What does this fold into?
Amino acid sequence: MHTREASVGRARAGWSARLHVVTGKGGTGKTSVAAALALALARDGRRTLLIEVEGRQGIAQLFGTEPLPYEERTIARVEGGGEVRALAVDAEEALLEYLEMFYKLGAAGRALRRFGAIDFATTIAPGLRDVLLTGKVKEATTRTAGGRRVYDAVVLDAPPTGRIGRFLNVTAETARLAKVGPIKTQSEGVAALLRSPITAVHVVTLLEEMPVQETVDAIAELTSMGIRLGRVIVNSTRSPLLAGRVSRPDLRRGLVAAQLPHDDATVSALLVEAENHLVRQALEDSLRGDLLELDLPLIELPLLLDGVDRAGLDALADRLAAAE
Amino acid sequence: MHSVPAPQRLDVDQILADPGVRIVVCCGAGGVGKTTTAAALALRAAEQHGRRTVVLTIDPARRLAQSLGLSELDNSPRQVKGIDTEASGGELHAMMLDMKRTFDDVVLTHTDPKRAAEIFANPFYQAMSSTFAGTQEYMAMEKLGQLHARGEWDLIVVDTPPSRSALDFLDAPARLSRFLDGRMLRLLLAPARSGGRSMFSLVTASFGVFSRAVQKIIGAQMLTDLSGFVAALDSMFGGFRQRAEQTYRILQDRETAFLLVAAPEPDAVREAAYFAGRLRQERMPLAGLVLNRVHRTAAAEPAGDASLAAANRLDELGGYAGAAEVLRVHAALCRQAAREEQVAATFTRAFPAVPTVAVTAQPADVHDVDGLRAIGDAVSGR
It folds into this structure.
């Protein structure tokens, strides 16, 4: 166990990164957490960029906007003059942009598109797609204008835990195919950034067995790759409602006092609900214990009972910001 | 808010017992209990309906795999022991998909050993067979086609890969065959076909611009490997496409039943709705929606608000701490159930004709045959 001070110190280190990569098993709410983190980090008049790379338009759905183009757009304004911009990176567009930037391809770039070469290139070399996507993330993270950083922080809604290792391990993937050339150079630049203190990977989980198992596995994999872990973010938690088992007579007495139905069937059914809740609580406690053993700063976010809207995201952002 | 008429109840037993149904495909977003549902349905088909069943799982959780006796990934069905099929006479076999081995088998089937060895040694094949986005989906379809062609099974239950989108499962085969058969490959292949020399020796003016660009992106050495890969695969193009098309047709046939699996969460339900629309578009037979992890109250009374108000009142009275806690549990459950109903209604509104079954959330995960049996009971409403 850490002392409180030590964990506060590590917590601060968790948000000290400039590029926050948010992963987690599918269904854990990693897009919501990424968005809430982008909102939290945009407080005090700062500007953040929220990026998605899987073509799911999850950010647009979350904020209830039109599908995002391949363009950085303001998606939320934050009290204190800050703003969150959002970008859906598309591998094809990233490739064309990259070619334009480095080779001034012009007509040849258009020819590539006409021949379907881009689809082809990103299909045949699986690592290439990830190099292009992470390359764009790197570009946004390091971009400056007038000698100042364009973004105070970049939050990446990354692929799920099952694919995160491969996604971030860009050099290994491309090294198999590209021994020399621009792709190799590009991927080495990305790899260096991902392993520097600028980057932290946060893993979102629920207090359920499969997500916790995948969290443990992903952290082991990323650690072995030399990638710096930030926090474990436990999403959708509920505060325990029962201190222990409640006896049938006690419950009945309470129901009578509250002038509620207290027939046998109702009492039994309420006791079943309570028992299920206790089983669930015990399982959650044991899973929380597994997560604590990871020895990473842990933060718990509450279940949003009314669904994930802007108010809900701001509530999550409050929790995340308080962890600073 | 408009009230949504309750959808027709999905009768899973009717599907599992129907000898005309030979394939059940479970699809849906990741994290909704798809693999567990597939395993539970297959177990039920064997135990209750006496069918010789095989379940093809893609990436099962370790403990679920162990409960099916799947300790290793050996890419061929193994009989599951220790289940109760004495009365029914059914059998359950289970397998985990090994993407690379399946791809290797496809290559071996379609080409001679010398060519196959060349293909296996090519770095592009190695990358593609293990990491190509869509290979897993394609190989799941390929394996389904193989199991179906063997004709040994009464029923094949398929779990689909945890794709970025559930639609990848349908699209990957077409994408792969389009790619292997595409204009790009023909362009790249042209020189290799006419003598196997450098592909840049025959460039035309327009291809010159193009190839220079390609070379800039992926580098000359990569192009050489790629050209070799393509040349070696050339003999297999027809086979690839034919098989993808065959499997696609099997999926359109009435012997197939698609089951959407979802949880009452907005993302999962949205994904299920996409998939339902897509199946309709592809004229593939959608049998129904399995809504997992649904929370229901056991006690019909009191209502959530009344329960919470009563808990507060008991706190004021003092001396009823335990009862107040239980009432708060009940109130929270009421609220969760109401929210889940709203989420599920978004699907029902869009697809009122799709039969649906709700499966109550289990307090803990399933990792043994008894647990799978309980899930099977719950899915079929028994």
Chain A touches chain B through 82 residues (CB under 8 Å).
